[in-house]
Amino acid sequence: MNIPELLQQLTLEEKASLCSGGDFWHTKAIERLGIPAMMMSDGPHGLRKQDETGDHMGINDSIKAVCFPAGCATASSFDRGLVERMGKALGNECQAENVGVLLGPAVNIKRSPLCGRNFEYYSEDPYVAGEMAASFIQGVQSQQVGTSIKHFYANNQEHRRMSSSSEMSERTAREIYLAAFERPVRKAKPWTVMCAYNRINGVYAAENKEALTDILRGEWNFHGFVVSDWGAVNDRVADLESGMDLEMPSSFGMRDAEIVKAVRCGRLPEAVLDRAVTRILRIVQRYLDGRNPDAVFDRDADHELAREIASQCMVLLKNEDHILPLSKTETAAFIGKFAESPRFQGGGSSHINCHKVESALEMAADYPVLYAKGYETSDDVVREDLMAEAVAAAKAAKVAVVFAGLPDTFESEGYDREHMRLPDCQNALIEAVAEANPNTVVVLHGGSPVEMPWLHQVRGVLEAYLCGQAVGGATVQILYGDVNPSGHLAETFPIKLEDNPSYVAYQGEGDVTEYREGVFVGYRYYTTKKMPVLFPFGFGLSYTTFAVSNLRTAQDEYQSHDVITVSVDVTNTGDRAGKEVVQLYVLPQTKTDSVQRPVQELRDFEKVELAPHETKTVTFTLHANSAFAYYCTQKKRWVVETGKYLLAVGNSSDHLTTEKMLTIHGEKALPAEITLNTTIGDVLRIPHADKELEKYAGAFGISSGSSDENAMGESTADMMEAMMKYMPIRGLLSFGGGEVSIAECKALVEKLNVLLENANLNNRSE
After folding, report:
1. What is the phi/psi pair of residue 159, to 5°?
2. 571-609: burial string, b at 16+ Cβ within 10 Å, e else
3. Contact 127/602 with Cβ under 8 angstroms?
4. Cβ distance 652 to 538 under 8 Å?
5. Which residue intervals define the domain Fibronectin type III-like in the entry (predicted)?
């Protein structure tokens, strides 16, 4: 297609029509000009291809496909290469099914364990979410199929998701909620971005010019088109003006007419419409150029890949007395309906119509296993007959394995969880089985953390998350030791829901949700507050043991523009091969009044495979201008302050075993602007400002030239500092006995702003 020529040939009505769907899943075709339709399909963890009469909530069937592990699981792999392989498989499936754009990945931050859609989101940490998303995008798009990273942005609850406003500071947005998108947009360049349903500080995401144009395109250099979440449009003309190009699904011509009317009456420049059409047609052309009609959707091969991926995602949370792996010759009792009918995916738009599903009971058929159903998932009622059967099976076995988790009705797109508990009947079952057999292991299926009141009663816990249609085989491989578990938590498991930093403000009041915890999300909050948790971010056990040591850098001091190489040694100290997730955190040590920072923040990770007693060196690359920075809302930019920063490496956020202190030379902590309300303490941070203030010391009854002890037993200098530190400049008027005029105060402010400007120039040039 020659897009400039097409723009000349398209009528105004045709241009407007190209900016909305032709049906539920396709862009519009303009047959007279040879513009074809392009299909999009749901699928962060599987291809949910439907026909044009489909739905967006997973209610109607789609084609038979393969359900891979959901985002909650794949993030726990901490394995970029693995996620990229999954993306490649999905991209190939899209080619085989003539799908141009796969709607994913979903990278919204897990602000609360209650969000109904957490199962398809990656992490509470924006770095992990961004890295996983970038790998997924690179995998899919290597097959010449586009992705649509979503939901941009601050879509962190399902409650009132189409009307709620996520209210947050600019710093919170930049460091947490935008950061999860920035990394994959810059690094992997998705073809499209899907905007969220919600409002952001009162403005709908679909008409948020700051997000869609100023940040996404202006700062991050995004060149694709922005598509609405299905049904997210509030004001179609405002959307176009703000940078939202394609409305989905079809509006049956109604909103197309609004666009035409707006152009004809002069409200909307036709150039804005042309811009959106151009962006859409470029992606359609890219899809056409990359078509591979020879691609084959090998469902059985992809099923095997799904099992391999699942086995690398599960997280071993407890393994007391080495209860796992199980013996292949001793009897085990598999208890719980999920052993026979596993829950392996979430509900809603990502629901996959699987071509086959394997259960743990089926895949353990060659081992001595007893089975008891234990509970029904259709209700939360303790069935005495099922309980008695389960207890009997537990008593007859060497080890009892309870397959528990969240039923479909507990978490889904469209609504939030009401609590963080398992069904009462399952908690009762676990306690009864553990009493009958002290060798009890719990396997958990679900997309989010759960409270574990029975944790002290069981010897093992395996978090299987929602690991896709091959979950049964992967679970059995880990339980019996054919695969050494290597997953680590990409989110914190709090002891109880009330411990979560968003607890008080989550869901909000009416259509307003305040993000009162700011940047203190997940482990950033728990570690800063020194709060005990059930399982910390980054945690995961193995059937072997590892030691992480000898952290080193080439220097002890760096400039804020330097690239820093960090190396550590990782040793497998056990007797079997395994994989460890090595995590690098930055801990600011220099305290200032300029900003409150979390105690520690993850800055890199690497998954490394080691044979018994093998040692490997893992190398990280830190860019100082981002690794040590915070976002300054007054200066509207990222700032690295001069100070001490501790580098610490380990295998979870609360197990950091090797560290090194660095000095980073960046900016001095300076105020953004001097006004009459700026405190003297802030002014004194500016080089040479003390000379300007000395002449006003007398206004406070202090003689700046004396060092004699005063009546309070303190030196004049100490007294001056103590009294003036939190005094605003305007205090000279109140305490100067009339000797300092308003004009003098304003003149002082002007002089100090000149000093501040010079200091900022020196800061930026050093």
Report:
1. -60, 120
2. bbebeeebbbbbbbbbbbeeeeebbebbbbbbbbbbbbe
3. yes
4. yes
5. 580-653
Query: Does residue 731 sit in helix, strand or coil?
Result: helix
Query: Which tens digit of pLDDT belongs to each residue from 422-472?
Result: 999 999 999 999 999 999 999 999 999 999 999 999 999 999 999 999 999
CA distances from 51 to 23, 25, 61, 145, 295 (A): 9, 8, 10, 19, 20
CA-closest candidate to residue 408, choices 453, 454, 355, 445: 445
CB-CB contact of 60 with 82 (8 Å): no
SS3 248: coil
Nearest partner of 644 among 629, 662, 628, 656, judged by Cα: 662
pLDDT tens for each residue of 28-78: 999 999 999 999 999 889 999 987 566 766 667 789 999 999 999 999 999
| Residue 229 is among the residues annotated as catalytic for this protein | yes
Burial 473-511, CB ≥16 within 10 A → b, else e: bbbbbbbbeebbbbbbbbbbbbbebebbbbeebbbbeee
pLDDT at 614 over 50: yes
pLDDT score at 712: 47
Distance CA 184, CA 139 (A): 12
Q: Residue 115 contacts by C-beta under 8 Å, 6 or more apart in sequence?
A: 121, 156, 157, 158, 416, 417, 448
Structure tokens at 452: 């574990």
Number of helical (H) and strand (E) elements in the chain, helices listed first: 24, 25
20, 247 contact by CB (below 8 A)? yes
From residue 530, give the alpha-carbon distance in Å to each of 451, 506, 525.
19, 22, 8
Angle, vertex CA 642, rays to CA 636 and CA 643, nearest 5: 130
Residue 345, Cα to own-chain centre: how many angstroms?
Answer: 19
525 vs 535: CA distance, rounded Å: 14
Q: How many CB atoms lie within 10 A of CB 570?
A: 21
Q: 634: Cβ–Cβ under 8 A, 6 or more apart, which residues?
A: 671, 672, 673
Residue 6 CA to residue 736 CA, distance in Å, equals: 73
Place of tokens 């009854």: 701
CA 665 to chain centre: 30
The answer to whether the CB of 26 falls within 8 A of the CB of 52 is yes
| Beta-carbon count within 10 A of 618 CB | 19
Given the residues 42, 79, 125, 229, the one annotated as active site:
229
Through-space distance between the first and last CA atoms of the chain, rounded to whole angstroms: 50
Rounded to whole angstroms, the Cα distance separating 137 from 44 reads 10
**pLDDT band, residue 760 (cuts 50/70/90):** confident
* Domains of the chain, earliest start first: 3-289 (3.20.20.300), 313-507 (3.40.50.1700), 546-665 (2.60.40.10), 680-765 (no CATH)
pTM of the predicted model as reported, rounded to 2 decimal places: 0.94
- Stretch 712-727: mean pLDDT, rounded? 64
Q: Give the model's confidence band at 720: pLDDT under 50 very low, under 70 low, under 90 confident, else very high.
A: low
DSSP state of 69: P
Phi/psi for 148 (5° steps) reads -135, 90
Question: Strand 643-652 vs strand 578-588: parallel, antiparallel, or unpaired?
Answer: antiparallel
Beta bridge partners of 42: 48, 103
CB atoms within 10 A of CB 43: 28
d(CA 553, CA 722): 40
Query: What's the farthest any 2 CA atoms get from each other in the chain?
Result: 95
Q: Which of 255, 154, 268 is nearest to 203 (CA)?
A: 154
Q: What are phi and psi of 71, to 5 degrees?
A: -60, -35
Angle formed by the axes of helices 471-479 and 299-313, to 10°? 40
* Rounded CA separation 278/15 (Å): 10
Better-predicted residue by pLDDT, 348 or 640 = 640
